Amino acid sequence: MKRPAILILIALLAVVCVAQGDHVPAFNTGPLKPGEALPVLPKDQLWGEAFKFPYQVRAYELAAKIPGVLNQMPCYCYCERIGHSSLHTCFESVHGAHCGICMKEVFYTYEQTKRKKTPAQIRAGIIKGDWKSIDLESAAKSD
User: Fold this and answer.
1) pLDDT-based confidence at 63, cuts 50/70/90?
2) Rounded Cα distance, 66 and 91, in Å
3) What residues make up the domain containing 62?
4) Which of 21, 29, 31, 77 is deepest in the core (most CB within 10 A)?
5) What is the mean pLDDT of the chain?
6) What's the CA gap between 28 and 85, in Å, rounded?
7) Displacement of CA 48 from its chain's centroid (Å)
8) What span, in angstroms and rounded, lies between the C-alpha atoms of 21 and 23?
9) Closest to 108 in 3D by CA, of 97, 98, 123
10) pTM here?
């Protein structure tokens, strides 16, 4: 009797995972408006347990440089489930420091912004998964 229940549970999980794979997480279509969101955590708060590695601090430093662009990016850790509205939201708290996906997306977004890509072009790359190739250790050493 337990075996059919386990098989049904596995099937349901597979359906949820496949369905989520096509879902583009929340993002905004324009830059931040004044008062629309909390700022990225400031440099004086980038310490403690959440910031053990240089790439964690560096991700927040870069996020603070491009808040309007981050507001237009989805976050593939699917943190919209906890109320996040874009990649920017991840860096308003220590959430981003605990999440490799968030940090990789920030490094990717910053790199593409420096290459003069538009937010729409960067978002297309994120949706395609181009951020997955980012190595956090290496990215933290470059600018």
Assistant:
1) very high
2) 11
3) 2-141
4) 77
5) 85
6) 7
7) 21
8) 6
9) 123
10) 0.81
Tally of structural domains, the chain: 1
Expressed in angstroms, the distance from the first to the final Cα of the chain is 58
Q: How many residues does the chain have?
A: 143
- Asked if 87 contacts 27 with a C-beta cutoff of 8 angstroms, the reply is yes
Which two three-digit tokens encode residue 25?
């997480």
What distance in Å separates the CA atoms of residue 140 and residue 129, rounded to the nearest whole number?
20
Q: Convert the pLDDT of each residue in 86-135 to its tens digit.
A: 999 999 999 999 999 999 999 999 999 999 999 999 999 999 999 999 99
C-alpha dihedral (85, 88, 89, 91), degrees to nearest 10: 160
Question: How many Cβ atoms are within 10 Å of 1's Cβ, its own excluded?
Answer: 4
